[in-house]
Structures are given as structure tokens and as C-alpha cells.
Amino acid sequence: MIKRFLTVSVFALLVGVIPMSAQISKFKALFLLNFAQNTEWTNNSSDNLIITVVGDSEVAEALKAATQSKKVGNRDVVVKEVSSIKLVENTHMLYLSESKSRQVSEFRSVNTLVITGQDGLCSSGADICFKEQDGKLRFEISTRNINAKKLNITSKLVTLGIPSN
Questions:
Q1: For residues 39 and 37, what is the distance between their CA atoms, to the nearest angstrom?
Q2: Dihedrals φ, ψ of 145, to 5°?
Q3: What pLDDT shows up at residue 53?
Q4: I want to staple 121 with a disulfide (CB 3.0 to 4.6 A). Which of 2, 103, 126, 142 is the partner?
Q5: Where are the chain's structural domains?
């Protein structure tokens, strides 16, 4: 009886966790799309806006679904998914999953907006970091890092974010 109760309880917890994880991935994808819509790249070397996701297939799939028939400005959005930061090339935006976020210091590109799934990494080179605050998904933003890359972001994006120290 106790074994059955524990099995049912664990299953109930998992059923509750899986949709929450998928929901968070959808929110992150919508945030990423919003970041793209509120950023202007000074180097317009590509006809497409390329967003690369490292280490998070749920976010990549949610982002692909969210951008399927959308444009950012006059650009089509191309979402690439890679397993390692070493495979990243020629991208406008880079999202590092929580498990890959610590590798942010390994990525150096002048014209790429770098977003991490772990908070507190703007001091390590991230431009935007997701964080949970009061049970809500929020983001920390480093205007200093973004300005150093000569990217232009809207004041709306700055005011919606939490300034990094």
C-alpha cells in the first residue's frame, strides 16, 4: 500500500514538473524573440537573423515554433541548435542553457547578443541572464556589455530588465 502511494505520488510530482519545464521553455523562447525585436545589430552581414541555442532542445523547439512565420524587422529568423559552444558560428544571438552558462567566458564575438539561462553571469561576459524572482521569470541586463559590442537596444528592454552590477 505504501509502495503504491509513493509510486502515485512520484508520478503526480513528475506530471506537475514536466509541464512546468515546458512552460518555462516557452516563456524563455518568447523572451528571446522579444530580445531580438528590441536589438539592432550594427553589422548586418546576413539576410537572416540567426539565433543559436546551446544545450537546451526544449527552448530551441519552442523558439522554432514561436518564430515559424515571424520576421524581426525585415529578416527571417533562423534558429540553430548545437550541443557545444565550440560549434557556434556566425550568430546574432546566443542562448546558453543553464548547464552550459558557465562557458560564457569562452565565447567572444563582437556582434552577438549573449543570453544565459543562469543568473549572475553578466560579470563574466553575458549580456542578459535569466533569473527567477518572486516565482517569475525575469532577466538581468548589462548595458555596459551590450554597448561594448556596439549593439543598440531599446530603452523599453532596459527598463523591463534588472540592471546588472
A1: 6
A2: -65, -40
A3: 97
A4: 126
A5: 2-163
